[in-house]
Amino acid sequence: SAHGVLHSHVVVDSSQVVCIPSECPLTDEQLSVMPVVCLTVIYSLKYRVHLRAGQTVLIHAATGGAGQICIQYCQHIGARVIATAGTEEKRRFLREHLGVEHVFNSRDTSFVNDVRNILPNGVDVIINSLSGPLLKQSIKLLAYHGQFVEWGKRDVFDRTALSMFDLRSDCSIHVIDLISLSDKQQDICTDMLEEMVQLFIQNKLKPIEPTVIYEPSQVKEAFIRCNSGQAMGKSVVRLTNSSEPLYVNGKPSAAHLSTGNHAMFPLEVCQQGTILISGGFGGLGLTMSRWMIEKRGVKHVTLMSRRTLVELEQASNPQYDDWLKLKQISKTYDAHVDVVQVDVTNFDQVHNLMERLNQSSRPVRGIIHSAVVAEDRSL
């Protein structure tokens, strides 16, 4: 897998590629979602937890792609699965399609008593993607020497929320970061990819259900489905096998690549918007303006400064030569540079400028804050 999304082509090291044999029963769209999902599951259960047959595993929010593969992998190993899901429809799906006997509610803490009723001593492994109070209640369900696998990210970055683990010194916590793993231990990732392919060929793992496929013109609908909180399975935007171009904000994605595939400078920024630079009369602001016009195709720049244009164009001004170069570059590349006298520390002045620019045909699409105040002192 390569970093980033919505690419028709990616460049990766050959060591990161595995062959998909013709006997693999999955379609390209079904396969596209599998590497991240399967590697997360295999790394968690095989390399970190060392899951064994007969152990009990509680999987939270299990109707997602990773949850479904996790259930199947546990069943392949011979572990007993208990799951949670947010709606009755999702809970019924897990019972009927994946054969999970005990499925409880993940939207409140009722699952704690439900799990205790069938497993008074707790579970051996918890696969967690919940956060806040639900996460804190989950930790209470770990059996002696249990293992807690964290797939969510919200509480990983909140150190105070993780202090609860100090209360269970007998237990282990594993925070799974697949991006770091792929950067630092690519050989393990390659081994897991090969194992993934074999598991599908042997029918030990099955495709994620449903895998909903969208055409490039439906990319907005795909993201809406993902954010709805009601979706199960995976959403896939078909690019390579589609005859449609990908449109973002009404413009073909090919136009976004015309400036050298620089994500910070798409068409909306370079040609249809204004770059606003505070401290625009300084050396950094003038040099940055020249670079954006010459190297990134930016067509509209507004320089904001407490000084006036008259002061800028005085030969005694230290930035006079930079200003002349910028004027020449803007003329050569048919760009437009505006100069406005605005104090960046004055809220009303800045607000009025933003209002005026955003009501024009070239609204603000980027801001560079380069204003500084120098206070000279004797040494």
From TrEMBL:
Signal peptide: none
Domain Enoyl reductase (ER): 4-237
Keywords from the UniProt entry: Transferase
Gene3D superfamilies assigned to the protein according to its UniProt record, in alphabetical order: Medium-chain alcohol dehydrogenases, catalytic domain, NAD(P)-binding Rossmann-like Domain
Keyword RNA-binding carried by entry: no
SUPFAM superfamilies: NAD(P)-binding Rossmann-fold domains
InterPro entries membership: ADH-like_C (IPR013149), ER (IPR020843), NAD(P)-bd_dom_sf (IPR036291), PKS_KR (IPR013968), Polyketide_Synthase (IPR050444)
An example molecular function term from Gene Ontology annotations: oxidoreductase activity
Protein name, as recorded: Enoyl reductase (ER) domain-containing protein
Organism: Adineta steineri
